[in-house]
Give the backbone structure.
Amino acid sequence: MKSFKNTIIIITGSVLYALSVSVFTAPNNIAPGGLTGIGTVLNYLFKIPIGTFILIMNVPLFIIGFKILGRGYLLKSALGTACASAAIDLISPFVIPYRGDMILTCLFGGALSGTGLALIFSRGGSTGGTDIIASIVHKRLSHISIGRLILVFDAAVVTLSAFAYGNAENAMYAAVAIFVSSKVIDVVSYGTSRDNGKLMFIITTEHREILSQLLTKVSRGVTVLDAFGGYSGEKRKILMCALRPNQLFKADSIVKSLDKNAFLIVTTASTVSGLGFKNKT
């Protein structure tokens, strides 16, 4: 049931993302970064189907990233990529593209894209493309954040689109759409405040392995607390970990895969500051 639910959410997110491309961005010559942006430009120049291009270009990326990024992440990303690519090509002939006000195009296209991507990210997946490239590069250049790498790649695609369309305005509209999409991802994933987070307490006998997995796969610091069971009288270790809301699913999956009997307490922290969160001065 859990896998079924994850699949449904990823498919739903992929369809929303596809609608943003087929209805708003592609018909208006807006290249929203990444492989989707490159596919949009190639579709304009050579009539190459956007979804087919995205799918073909992601195949070598998944092969390269398989050993580096892990099977679980790539399987969910492959599902998101396949669904989004197929939806873009299948939906396009049947939807009515919007060719009205360009600002409305950016706002609604970005909102649909951001909502779809947030749903996919919440299940631990992605739509491939620059997400995979940035994750691979980040493994080699860990001092550069994944978000910054994606921004660089998207900026390059948007800049190239200006030359392809022969119009700087289309590139500026693409920047607006990307900005809106990123903000919607934040709101859907984190809520209206970027300072909030989730606080997870884990009582387990497998604390060493879970600690290691949280540090390496979720990239979050963990505090180990000494505890004493009031009923059992046994000494235990409690792991305390502050997470972004979109990291909760991955952390929960790690814990349950290593210790099905682990006792979990998850609460919302209205404000979290420090490394990895907002720094207070």
User: Anything to note?
Assistant: The beta strands are 197-204, 223-228, 235-243, 263-269.
